Amino acid sequence: GGNGCVCKLDKVVMSYFAVAACLLLLGTTIALVSAQNLTMCIGLGVGTQANMPVPDIVNGGSRSRLPVTVNNDTSVLIIYATYRANATYRLEDVVASSTSLANVVAKTTHTNETAEAVFQFTCNSAGVALVNVTMAMSGCENQYFVIEKLCGQPSQSRKGFAVGSAPGRADIVTDGIVHSDYQLSTPFLIPSSLDNTTLYLSMSDKGEQQNILSPIVVSDETIVKAQINSKLAAGGMVTSVPQPFEIFWNCHASGKALVSISFHLPGYHDIELDMVKDCTPPPVVVTADSGMSAWSKFVVIIGCVGGAFALAYAYRYHSGLRGKEAIPFHEQFYACFDWAKSFSAQSRGYRPQAQDEFDDVESPTAAAEAELAPTRYGTI
Known about the structure:
Blueprint: H1 2-42, E1 45-47, E2 58-59, E3 62-63, E4 68-70, E5 76-82, E6 89-96, E7 101-111, E8 114-123, E9 127-137, E10 140-151, E11 161-164, E12 173-174, E13 177-178, E14 188-190, E15 196-203, E16 210-212, E17 216-219, E18 224-229, E19 236-238, E20 243-251, E21 256-263, E22 271-278, H2 294-318, H3 330-348, H4 355-359, H5 366-377
Parallel strand pairs: 4-10, 14-22
Antiparallel strand pairs: 1-2, 1-5, 2-3, 5-8, 6-9, 7-8, 9-10, 11-15, 12-13, 15-20, 16-19, 17-21, 18-20, 21-22
C-alpha cells in the first residue's frame, strides 16, 4: 500500500515539472520576440529636421506628447523619418478634426532607411485644426502623433493693393498697409455734413488683380447704419482700373459712432479701415424774424401800409388838396369801385346808365317844372 502512494506522488510531481517547463519555454519565446520588436522600434526616429541628433516627434519608439505646431504663415510641413534597415515604413492614416482646415495632403518619399513625409495644409477659416497622424513600421507597433495647424490671418500684406479717396490715389491704403489716419488708434472723422463717402479700390500695377471676399461692415446701428453701394459689395476682382466703393451714412440718432470696414484678401493679411461718423445735427441759425408768428407778420405789414398811406394823405392835404382829392390813389380807387358796381349790375341782369348818357338829357325849364309839380307831388 505504501509503494502505491509513492508512485502516485511521483506522477503528480512530474506533472508539475512539465507544466513549469512549458511556462518557462513560453516566457522565453515572448521575451525574445519582445526584445526583437524593441530593437526594431529603437531604430525609429521621426523629427521636423533632417539628421536630428534627438528626433522631436518619435525617438526610439517613444513619441513626444506635445503636438507639432504649424503657424499661420506656414502651409507645408516636412517630417523626416529614419528606421531600421530592411523594414517597411508608411503613413497609415491622416485625419483632420476641424472645419478650419479645408484639406490636408500627405505624400511620402523613401530612400535607404530614410523617408520624408510632406504635409500640405489648406485653411478654410480662422481657427485651430488638429491633425492625427498614424505611422506604421514593420516589426513595431503603430506610432501616433498630432499636428496642430493654426489657421488665421497671414502676416504678409498684398503688395500693390491700394485704396484712395480719388481714382488713382493710394492715400488710405498703400501696398496692403492701412495709413495711420484710418487705423483704430486714430480713426478718420466723417463730418456730419457728409451723407456718403466714396473710396476707390485698385491695383497699382497694370495687369495685376486680386480677389476679395464680401466686405464686412461693423458699426453701432443705434446711431448710424453704413450701406455699401458698389459692384464689390459681394466681393469680386480688383484690377488696375479703380473701382468705386460708395458708403451711404444713414444716421438714426445724434452722436458719433465707430465704423469698421474689413476687406478679406485670401492668402494675405486682412485690411481694416476704421472711421468715426459724426451724426450730430448742425446748429440751428436763428434769424431776426424767426420768432414771429404769421399773424404778427400780417399786423406789421398792415401797419406799414397804413403808415405809408397816412403820410401820403398828409402830404397831399398840406399841398392844398381837400376831400377825396387828398386821398392817395383816389382815381384808381374810384375806377375800381365803378368797375365793381358795373360788374355787380351785369350779374343781376341790367346795365346802369353811364354818366355821359345822363349828361345828354336836357334839364327841364322852370315853367315845365311848375307845370309838372302838381302831378309829381299831388295836391294837398
